[in-house]
Amino acid sequence: MLYIAKRLAFYVLAAFVAITVNFFLPRLTPGDPASTIVATYSTTLNEESLAALRQAYGLTDDPLFQQYLTYLGNILRGDFGRSLSNFPAQVSDIIAAGIGWSVLLGLTSVLLSFVIGSALGALAAWRRGGIFDRFAPPVLLFLGSFPYFFLALLLFYIFCFKLKWFPMGNAYSSVNPPPFTLSGIGDVLYHLIAPAFTVVLVSLGPWTLNMRNAMIGVLSEDYLTLAEAKGLKPRRVLFSHAVRTALLPNITALGAAIGGVFSGQLLTEIVFTYPGLGYSLMRAVSAVDYPLMQALFLIITLSVLAANFLVDTLYVLLDPRVRAGQGA
Amino acid sequence: MHRHSSLKKSPWHLSRSLRALALAGLAGVAALSAPLPAMAEVPLDQLVRIVAEGGNSFTRTFNPFSPTARWVSTRTMYEPTMIQNYATGQLDPWLATGYEWSADALSLTLTLRDDVKWSDGEAFTAADVAFTFNLMKDNPGLIGPAAGAFGQYLSAVEAVDDTTVKFTFSTTYTPGLYAIVDQFIVPEHVWKDVADPVTFENSEPVGTGPFTTIDAFGTDRYQVTKNPNYWQPLNIEGVFVQGFNGNDQVSAAVLSGNIDWGGLVPDPDTTFVALDPEHFGYWWPRTSVVMLLANTTDGALGDTTVRKAMSLALDRQRMINTGVWGKSVPGNATGLPEGPFKDWIDPAVVEAGASWVNIDPDAANKLLDDAGYARGADGIRVDKDGQPMAYDIIVPSGWNDWVSASQIVAENLADIGMDVTLRTTTADSWTNSTFTGQFDLSLGTAQRTATPFEFYRNNMATSSVQPVGTASPNNQQRYGDPAVDELLAKFAASTDAAEQKSIIAQLEGMFNEAAPAIPLYEQPDWGLYNTTRFTGFPNAENAYAPLSLQMTNGPLLVWPKLERRAE
Amino acid sequence: MSFYETFGKIRRQALGSIPVLVGVVILVILVGSTALARWIAPYNPTRATGGINEFPSWAHPFGTTGQGQDVLSQFLYGGQNTLWIAFTIAVLTTLLALIVALTSAYFRGWVDDVLTLVTNVFLVIPSLPLIVVLAAFLTPGPATMIMVLTITGWAFGARLFRSQALSLREREFIAAAEDVGERRWRIVAIELLPNMGSVVAAYFVNQVIFAITAQASLEFLGLGDGGQVTWGSMLFWAQNTSALIRGAWWTFVVPGMAIALTAFSLALINNAVDELGNPRLRADRLLRKAGFRKPSASLMTPVKRDA
User: Fold this and answer.
1) Is there a single domain that holds both residue A73 and residue A103?
2) How confident is the model at residue A326 (pLDDT cuts 50, 70, 90)?
3) Which of A264-278, B519-533, C254-268 is predicted least confidently?
């Protein structure tokens, strides 16, 4: 329990750092971008309109520290202000509309690549030096060498545009969200395939290689030899001992992988016009939509922190050594 | 390219075996998947599918006064009193049937239609028009065509009777007509109770436009359907707006036949029309000119001779061929586009200006040699202060046609001894640099306007020059001539068309003399259509309205003309 | 195992292992040809030297772009820019990570606690959004690229090096040095650092991969300097001129494959470097016969920290 409390304290601190960096970053850049931002959106403005819009956008000339306190207060209340590039929409509405899809795509692809990768790795280790072990690792390494967006565009072009196997965008067919029925869920899954496949393809390599190496390590341990000598069937040895032990390092890595996959996924979402947060981030950046940009960064960071915390907790349940308080 | 007619198919158009294959990993689900019934009240095949707004983060906000208003709010929901039709050059009556100036040009009267109703059934009257203008006066944060009119020239707006509105001017300013009639009108009975109209989200809009009903709204697409009380007959049910994240995605949708109107595909003759010549079409009329802007606060760039020499070095035809697939013409020496302003352009100025807008690198080199800009040891010319003539040309990274034009500018100017480096930046950084005058070279274009008045004001008048560091969208090159201000004042005070025309001709001559900006080529207004499901789009043969979806109010002219093709 | 020994082993292994050989050959060809861009590139990479989107021909072996530039010349010059930027980022992040880790190991106590905390915070904050947000506020260009990716890219190395340093400290020879009263900076500089050779080398190679893909991703988002030719900006332009849709796949595939092949060859080489730090894998005779050496779990976590 102490371990979990310590981890929790760490994540709260990390969140606070992210929130603070998030606030000061745009404000430390030279110049006053505020009036330009306003001017960008309308070319027929007079001074009076400019001042009124600045106020509506929440751009003030208060001292920095006071702005910081206001900002902290607003965040605690869940008030992220209004988007500049989609005025007067609330930033929280934009994020609420997209985050579910990002989480769905992220979880699906992380879990799929974890399960498939670990399975492939175990297979490769079990049949060491076999055809599969010989060719799978370099092929996966090669696939993992592509930037996400490159593979995404290639798959989009081939499978969505040319072959028309998958839809060219959106998370479901209808305009309003689909009903929670089997056909509705099937529709959502169908739209999920192409983007999720892209992410899985790129991120499969490390899972496989790690699992394989961990397995090789475990398989050379004495107790397994002993188990085999005692007449246990190899298949049983593999599944009941080796896989479980070898899986541990992969589970540790799961937490870190979530952040990485989330990053690559944003670009994949953009390519497949998937309605997650990826496009919002790109648009916020290109339109210098501070409120949206800051809120997105914050939400993404907090989601990743939460996921990491979950993984930490899971790890405690799986590894008795940590439970005993030896983990750091 | 493989041709396909996927229009009537849902995204579930895989063959059975392919679908099974695709869903192999989700086998249990695949068996249960069936085409979904459309949730929307109006089926998708009844709606005109358009590419109008980028991205997939739509929110249900229809405040037309927002600087970043939802596309439909000013193109299908709220309407102006009259529409400047850039395809015909006419001022078309809309909610108003006509206007009249008083003899002293200090008051303007609009006569309104008496058969217009708001989408909630209430009558549209002159009180709504007066209310809209006064609302904007009280709330300077509301942005629209007439924003700022009160500070500049308008003093009062009042409803004389149900169909008559009177605008009283504080000073004679006849170009104000276009800003006033262009202003969209909101209903008094709804907006008078809005606490803060600037941040009002307006998720249930009430307007006079053809499509005001929101049946279905998703973050990456939405549909807007018929206003039951629209004042004109309509033959279509509504529009379906779909968001896309990038050029590839738009092109893919357009080429797949999933879009009825809008979008941009490169080289449309070969990539688009060839796919289905019977139904696919495009029309790219030109209503503005792309110009090379040189910051005149720089010593050498402030020299007219240098700017004219630069102009002579430029290969405009190559810019047109690479940037806009040959679909344009080089700009002329008046700076005005030929299409909309053909009646204003003085042929004599165009002819005289050929001496500096046609390509002639030898003449350019001679001009610079004679003016004393000698080449240094490295071949780069040196300005009067002894500095090498080395400049940056900045352009936003996503704007392909402009970037390729800038690239050609840099190459051409290298040939006359100027060292120009192309720098692409984010759109915002570019806006910041150009608005504040902190740049060497950049590209720019003029806003579309009813007369050339604004073009010369925004490019040559001292009134439009801001000091370097102060942001202003106009006169980024910071060139001002007091004589221009005088002529503009005379124009603004005049209601006589002939007099206005002669003033513009004088301004054209001054532009030709001073070259405050270097015209490159006319900017096409992108517009594509697909008549598989709907007919009646404007095109070169039937040029009743602009085809471009980005032009304000243009689509309002088109909606009543569209028809669903019989099955 | 000293630094020199490490590289001696790499050399010996490279000769004896097919994948490493493949990796080295690809890398030498890529680095060599791009380094010679000035002499072997047929055209100026930014100038239009042919028609628009021309199919590969004798005049333009890799075809031309949507703006008529020669793709081969762009590939060569672009590779030069991409690689030196990536190399610089890798050097800087490795140095920064080493400094943080060795400072931790040297001072221990609260300094170590604080640095570990900072490292963990940087590790846990997702990098791409941070990179994007950072890049958006700075003027695009190589300097920005290097700065942004260095700031966001060092943390994993710091953690790795610190744990390596801590485990080395437990070894007898360090303990012995401490016992005889050797000064701490000497222990760090003479005993610790050289013994971290293989880990540092493997990390460095990983960082080059990270920098290449992260750089390309940023440029793809339009956050690079589009006026400068790099593999990432080539992809940006290909996407921007709808190259795939128009059938001009060569403008897209060439830079994409260049990035992937570079990363792939480095990954192959990295496995060899990594193996030196993992005796168990090294000892695996079957594996050696199979010819492939994998990164150990300790080194290559499944974190795709780039995008």
Assistant:
1) no
2) very low
3) A264-278
Is residue A2 in some structural domain? no
| Residues contacting C263, CB < 8 A, separation 6+ | A145, A146, C209, C212, C213
* Residue C82 token pair: 């991409």
User: Which helix H or strand E contains B282, and what residues bound it?
Assistant: strand B280-282
Instruction: Establish how many alpha carbons lie within 13 A of residue B296's alpha carbon, considering only the half-sphere containing its beta carbon.
Output: 26
Omega before residue A249 within 30° of 0, cis:
no
A146: in domain: yes
Q: State the DSSP H helix or E strand holding residue B107, giving kind and residue range, or none if neither.
A: strand B107-112
Same-domain check for residues A141 and A255 = yes
Last residue of a domain, one of A44, A79, A114: A79
CATH number, domain of A205, equals: 1.10.3720.10
Q: Mind listing the pLDDT tens digit for each residue in A120-163?
A: 988 888 777 788 887 888 888 888 888 888 999 999 999 998 89
3-class DSSP state for residue B183? Answer: coil
State how many domains chain A has.
Answer: 2
Q: CA of C40 to nearest chain B CA: how many angstroms apart?
A: 22
Q: What is the pLDDT, as a whole number, of residue B100?
A: 95
A235 and A296 fall within a common domain: yes
Report the sign of the C-alpha dihedral through residues B298, B300, B303, B309, in that order: negative
Instruction: Judge whether A146 is closer than 8 Å to chain C, CB to CB.
Output: yes
- Quick check: A147 contacting C, CB < 8 Å? yes
- CATH number attached to the domain at C22-274: 1.10.3720.10
Residue A91 resides in a domain: no
Average pLDDT estimate for A255-280:
81
DSSP one-letter string for A97-140: HHHHHHHHHHHHHHHHHHHHHHHHHHHHHHTTTSHHHHHHHHHH
Q: Are residues A193 and A224 in the same domain?
A: yes
pLDDT top residue among B125 and B13: B125
- In chain C, what percentage of residues exceed pLDDT 70? 81
A19 assigned to some structural domain: no
Q: Are residues A133 and A216 in the same domain?
A: yes
Of A166, A183, A287, the CB nearest to B33: A183
What confidence category does residue A279 fall into, taking pLDDT thresholds of 50, 70 and 90? confident
Q: Are residues A158 and A269 in the same domain?
A: yes
**Would the CB atoms of B252 and A174 count as touching at under 8 Å?**
no
A282/A202 same-domain check: yes
C222 to chain B: which residues are within 8 Å by CB? 397-398, 426
Flag if B55 and A283 touch (Cβ within 8 Å): yes
pLDDT of residue C226: 67
Domain boundaries defined on chain C: 22-274
ipTM: 0.83
Same domain, A199 and A52: no
Boundary residue ending a domain (A49, A79, A109): A79
Helix (H, G, I), strand (E, B) or coil at B213: strand
pLDDT tens digit sequence for B182-239: 999 999 999 999 999 999 999 999 999 999 999 888 888 899 999 999 999 999 999 9
More confident residue, C121 or C287: C121
Facing A85 at nearest CB: one of B4, B68, B436: B68
* Domain encompassing residue A245: 98-323
Model confidence at B381: pLDDT above 70: yes
